[in-house]
Design brief:
This protein has 95 residues and is mainly α. The protein is 44% helix and 8% strand.
Length: 95
């Protein structure tokens, strides 16, 4: 067990930060993995910039790591799933 990454479809990209913040507010320990290597300070100093590797940047902007660990209960898995589904029902389907 290391990472369980969910990736937002292109049409939901604008909700990435909002989903992350929502899950954190609900006490779900989500994370962002990984910042593209070329955007780290060391590589920026070497001349790399936003736009150089569009696929890695897109991945960073559309992916969220949700909890995964051996003691994660079915109850918590269902809770996380429902929170994510409800988030999209409230924030996207109304538009």
């Amino acid at each position: 067990f290391h990472l369980y990454v969910i990736k937002l479809k292109d049409r939901y990209n604008f909700l990435h930060k909002k989903l992350f913040d929502y899950l954190r507010k609900k006490k779900i320990n989500v994370n962002l993995h990984y910042i593209p290597v070329h955007l780290h300070p060391y590589y920026r100093k070497k001349g790399f910039k936003t736009g150089d590797f569009k696929n890695s940047e897109k991945h960073a902007k559309t992916s969220i790591s949700i909890p995964i660990f051996p003691d994660l209960t079915n109850k918590n898995i269902i809770k996380i799933s429902k929170l994510i589904n409800n988030f999209f029902i409230k924030n996207y389907e109304k538009k």
